[in-house]
Write a structure and sequence with these properties.
alpha+beta; Alpha-Beta Plaits; two-stranded antiparallel sheet; two-stranded antiparallel ribbon; 2 helices; 4 strands; globular
């Protein structure tokens, strides 16, 4: 599985991009997206992107 950023709620703050250990998060247009093929959901640990995201429920399981 992979995580997904809800683009309608993403504030484009960029916090998640720098926390991703797999470089799976990148800016696309005016918001961030997660490349599903690169996302490992932090291999069983709490996903780092969710931990730093200031918007509740912005990053969800796809």
């Amino acid at each position: 599985m992979a995580l997904k950023i809800t683009t309608s709620t993403c504030s484009a703050c960029g916090a998640c991009e720098f926390e991703c250990p797999n470089a799976a998060i990148a800016m696309k247009g005016e918001t961030y997206v997660i490349k599903a093929s690169a996302c490992t959901e932090c291999d069983g640990d709490d996903p780092k992107c969710i931990a730093v995201c200031p918007v509740e429920n912005c990053i969800v399981k796809a």
